[in-house]
């Protein structure tokens, strides 16, 4: 085996009562790509943050290049040649690429020499690794794929030999992800060591040399990628066998429940986000909307659910129009049988400071079931919450717990339970499993399919292509605000990826 | 010619009245660019004014007065830092608390030390900063146009006035041409980026607050040792708040800050000048109307009628490493 670039020995880390990492041992060979997989909350990010000096381990030893080291701050890590690309980019949005690259790595107190140096250095990195980016572009004007490239450049500029990437493909199109993988392979060929944290097994299989699996704060296994399978890894991750594709019967589409015609929506800046979109959703079918985040899906959902003003078009719910002037009362739509699971559960779907039981009736609090005269019927609400907790396996099973203290998957279940248990005719779901672990994903998918089988119309928007493909009876692809294609569930990932990247669309335009 | 002289005089008092605003505004700029809201500019100016006048009167030295003003003002800035950086307290509450402590303690200490009803002793020549007469100012005073402009507007101010205006290009240079400025702007926008780049967020913010303290100290010293011959209770009279309004008006940029402060200073000067005398076309304008204008203009700006004022994104939010 090649010499180890990093060795972690017996790492422990607790946050209060939560043991995020226990007795972790990890060895990453120099010049390889090493994947770390695990569900959300398995402790992957914590472990890497310890390596990067963002947190301190409670106990354990870190060796870099065979030598024991102590990493107290990110500065120590950088000095040891460790660079990290965070899941949420650590960039200053209104700075230029150059300014972001030199931040913290300036050569002296004045900026002039640093900027000159960084400019030529970026030029070199661009030639060596194909990392092209305009050094004078302002970050917020760059697409996410390029922003990520800036993060990689930042690490390389600081002389990183070991590069940690935390969930790097979450925000990328399949094409951008492929480009990223090419860059990573190139970096590997140049002798750099890469640690890739992800929960996408497909990526692990595609690019890594070795893979370690984490579960509930422990390191459960390390495998050579070639000698393992997706099934084995998934099983190791959750500790039991999971269905990666939910089984579902043929859909029996009924009458049109939700009909969208020529819908156009602009955002606050006046930019057209949804451009003349039309589609129908029938009872008993799941329609999935695929697309890279930011191509109008969010605005579409918001317009249909009455949160956002639409410029023109028509949306019919059970044959009756929805007011699109932005004055539509989401409560009224709810009464008409339209339930909405918003994309952003933290800001729109839940009040995190509320208790679970309060969130489980949020928006339905004026329903007679929960009222006793003008007051809330606390006993009924509590009973209802307990019922939902049981049905949806929400953990911990404590309706008095503050919602912020639930994990992402359980928070999502709280929202889903609330909306699904109202027995709506039409269910609109944005990112049903964003930030949700594998076990809960399976559960949520099964629930959505059960809704379909009961004859409900389900509209799902997700940036996860796998999810769209496994759930949908029909797939619509959005690009630049338009629906650029409709495919059946048998469409290949490559085909959808091209549509999502707007390739066919652009060709058609030319 | 009378009209011209009147204008020069109004502009001259505009400069005098803008100086404390400008110093406080730049002070706020350092702090807010680093992501710390500072509503306590008013209080820091007030303690600076009091400390400056007291020390100058006791030690008979303007310089010792200025030094003390800066020292005490920086100390208050550090208290704000301790509450809002180290302990991640609410920055507005901490700032308001500082204003109250300043208003109360200056009166109590002033009375206890000097027994003049909260005032400090009237400063003698040598204990105040005197006007600097530029070479040739008297000689060309009578030359039309240029004479009054040179003698009144450019010459004849105290050193602190020149300091205040010199701070404008200096602050711009610090912000956009130095490592400290780059990091300070970054920490006000995205402290996590600064943290992961291996730079201490807290230390950076403390340094920005020290800059704030120095400038509010000078602003206070200007009030009690230049504009006035001693400290009078509540002598800042809301200038710290107008400076904050000017900072928003200037969109957190140093050169804009100077123009905003000159505008607000001009409104103040004009309101004094116009007291009781009617304006052509509009008739008598109440002084209160002119005094309210800075706030009115700021509200109009915030409402989005004059461009958009986007504050530093991390402003007001204590930095906590995410779990």
Q: What topology emerges from the helices and strands here?
A:
The complex is a heterodimer of chains A (510) and B (323).
Chain A: E1 4-15, E2 18-29, E3 33-38, H1 44-51, E4 59-64, E5 67-69, H2 74-79, E6 82-85, H3 97-102, H4 111-129, H5 144-157, E7 162-166, H6 174-189, E8 193-198, H7 201-207, E9 210-215, E10 218-224, H8 230-238, E11 256-266, E12 272-282, E13 285-290, H9 297-304, E14 312-317, E15 320-321, H10 330-335, E16 338-341, H11 345-349, H12 356-359, E17 371-372, E18 375-376, H13 378-392, H14 408-420, E19 426-430, H15 438-453, E20 457-461, H16 465-471, E21 474-479, E22 482-487, H17 493-500, H18 503-509
Parallel strand pairs in A: 3-8, 3-9, 6-7, 7-8, 13-20, 13-21, 16-19, 19-20
Antiparallel strand pairs in A: 1-2, 1-4, 4-5, 9-10, 11-12, 11-14, 14-15, 17-18, 21-22
Chain B: H1 2-33, H2 41-59, H3 62-86, H4 91-114, E1 131-132, H5 146-154, E2 157-158, H6 159-177, H7 179-189, H8 191-196, H9 201-227, H10 239-249, H11 254-273, H12 287-302
Helix pairs in contact in B: 1-5, 1-6, 1-9, 1-10, 1-11, 2-3, 2-4, 2-9, 2-10, 3-4, 3-9, 6-7, 6-11, 7-9, 10-11, 10-12, 11-12
Shape category of chain B: globular
Number of discrete helical segments of chain B: 12
Number of separate helices of chain A: 18
SSE run of chain B: HHHHEHEHHHHHHH
CATH hierarchy, class of chain B: Mainly Alpha
Q: Whole-number radius of gyration of chain B?
A: 20 Å
| Global structural class of chain A | alpha/beta
Instruction: Give the rounded overall mean pLDDT of chain B.
Output: 90
Percent of residues in β-strands of chain A: 25-35%
Describe the structure.
The complex is a heterodimer of chains A (510) and B (323). Chain A contains 18 helices and 22 strands. By secondary structure, chain A is an alpha/beta fold. The C terminus of chain A is likely disordered. Chain B has one domain: ABC transporter involved in vitamin B12 uptake, BtuC, CATH 1.10.3470. Helix content of chain B is 68%, strand content 1%. A two-stranded antiparallel ribbon of chain B has the order 1-2. In chain B, helix 1 packs antiparallel against helix 9, helix 1 crosses helix 10 and helix 2 crosses helix 10. Chain B is globular and about 65 Å long. The mean pLDDT of chain B is 90. At the A-B interface, helix 2, helix 3 and helix 4 of A face helix 7 and helix 8 of B.
């Amino acid at each position: 085996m090649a010499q180890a670039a990093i060795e972690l020995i017996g790492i422990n880390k607790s946050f209060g009562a939560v043991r995020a990492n226990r007795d972790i041992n990890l060895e990453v060979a120099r010049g390889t790509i090493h994947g770390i997989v695990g569900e959300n909350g398995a402790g992957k990010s914590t472990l890497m943050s310890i390596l990067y000096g963002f947190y301190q381990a409670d106990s354990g030893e870190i060796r870099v290049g065979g030598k024991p080291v102590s990493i107290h701050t990110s500065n120590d890590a950088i000095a040891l040649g460790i660079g990290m690309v965070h899941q949420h980019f650590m960039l200053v949005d209104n700075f230029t690429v150059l300014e972001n690259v030199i931040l913290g790595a300036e050569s002296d107190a004045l900026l002039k020499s640093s900027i000159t140096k960084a400019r030529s250095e970026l030029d070199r990195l661009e030639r060596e690794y194909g990392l092209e980016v305009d050094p004078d572009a302002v970050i917020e004007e760059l697409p996410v794929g390029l922003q990520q490239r800036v993060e990689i450049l930042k690490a390389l500029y600081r002389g990183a030999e070991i590069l940690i990437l935390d969930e790097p493909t979450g925000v990328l199109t399949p094409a951008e992800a492929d480009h990223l993988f090419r860059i990573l392979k190139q970096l590997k060929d140049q002798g750099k060591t890469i640690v890739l944290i992800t929960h996408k097994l497909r990526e692990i299989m595609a690019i890594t040399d070795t893979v370690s699996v984490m579960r509930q704060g422990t390191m459960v296994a390390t495998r050579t990628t070639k000698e393992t399978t997706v099934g084995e890894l998934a099983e190791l991750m959750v500790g039991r066998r999971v269905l990666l594709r939910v089984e579902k019967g043929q859909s029996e589409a009924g009458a049109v429940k939700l009909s969208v015609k020529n819908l156009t929506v602009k955002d606050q800046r006046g930019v057209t986000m949804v451009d003349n979109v039309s589609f129908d959703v029938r009872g008993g079918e799941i329609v999935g909307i695929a697309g890279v985040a930011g191509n109008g899906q969010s605005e579409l959902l918001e317009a249909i659910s009455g949160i956002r003003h639409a410029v023109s078009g028509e949306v019919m719910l059970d044959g009756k129009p929805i007011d699109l002037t932005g004055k539509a009362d989401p409560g009224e739509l709810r009464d008409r049988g339209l339930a909405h699971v918003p994309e952003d559960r933290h800001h729109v779907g839940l009040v995190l400071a509320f208790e679970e039981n309060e969130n489980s009736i949020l928006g339905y609090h004026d329903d007679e079931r929960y009222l006793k005269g003008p007051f809330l019927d606390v006993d009924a609400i509590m009973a209802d919450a307990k019922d939902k907790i049981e049905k949806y396996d929400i953990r911990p099973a404590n309706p008095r717990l503050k919602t912020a203290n639930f994990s992402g998957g359980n928070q999502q279940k709280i929202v889903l339970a609330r909306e699904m248990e109202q027995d709506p005719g039409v269910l609109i779901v944005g990112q049903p499993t964003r930030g949700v672990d594998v076990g809960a994903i399976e559960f949520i998918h099964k629930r959505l399919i059960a809704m379909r089988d009961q004859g409900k119309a389900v509209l799902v928007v997700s940036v996860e292509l796998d999810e769209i493909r496994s759930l949908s009876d029909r797939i619509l692809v959005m690009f630049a605000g338009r629906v650029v294609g409709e495919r059946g569930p048998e469409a290949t990932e490559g085909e959808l990826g091209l549509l999502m990247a707007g390739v066919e669309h652009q060709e058609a335009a030319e | 010619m009378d009209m011209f002289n009147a204008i020069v005089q109004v502009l001259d008092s505009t400069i005098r009245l803008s100086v404390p605003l400008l110093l406080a505004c730049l002070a706020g700029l350092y702090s807010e660019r680093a992501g710390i809201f500072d509503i306590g500019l008013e209080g820091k100016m007030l303690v600076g004014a009091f400390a400056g006048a007291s020390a100058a009167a006791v030690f008979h030295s303007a310089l010792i007065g200025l030094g003390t003003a800066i020292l005490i003002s920086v100390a208050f800035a550090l208290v704000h830092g301790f509450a809002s950086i180290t302990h991640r307290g609410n920055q507005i509450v901490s700032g308001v608390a500082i204003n109250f402590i300043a208003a109360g303690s200056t009166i109590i200490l002033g009375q206890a030390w000097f027994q003049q009803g909260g005032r400090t002793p009237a400063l003698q020549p040598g204990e105040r900063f005197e006007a600097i007469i530029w070479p040739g100012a008297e000689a060309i005073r009578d030359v039309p146009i240029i004479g009054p402009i040179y003698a009144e507007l450019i010459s004849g101010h105290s050193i602190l006035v020149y300091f205040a205006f010199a701070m404008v290009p200096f602050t711009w240079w610090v912000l956009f041409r130095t490592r400290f400025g780059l990091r300070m702007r970054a920490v006000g926008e995205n402290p996590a980026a600064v943290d992961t780049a291996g730079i201490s967020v807290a230390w950076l913010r403390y340094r920005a607050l020290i800059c704030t303290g120095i400038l509010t100290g000078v602003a206070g010293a200007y009030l009690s040792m230049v504009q006035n011959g001693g400290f009078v209770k509540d002598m800042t009279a809301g200038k710290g708040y107008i400076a904050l309004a000017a900072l928003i008006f200037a969109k957190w940029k140093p050169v804009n800050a100077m123009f905003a402060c000159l505008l607000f200073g001009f409104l103040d000067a004009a309101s004094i000048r116009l007291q009781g005398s009617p304006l052509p076309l509009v008739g008598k304008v109440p002084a209160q109307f002119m005094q309210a204008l800075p706030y009115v203009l700021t509200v109009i700006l915030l409402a989005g009628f004059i461009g958009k004022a986007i504050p530093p994104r991390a402003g007001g939010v204590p930095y906590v490493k995410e779990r």
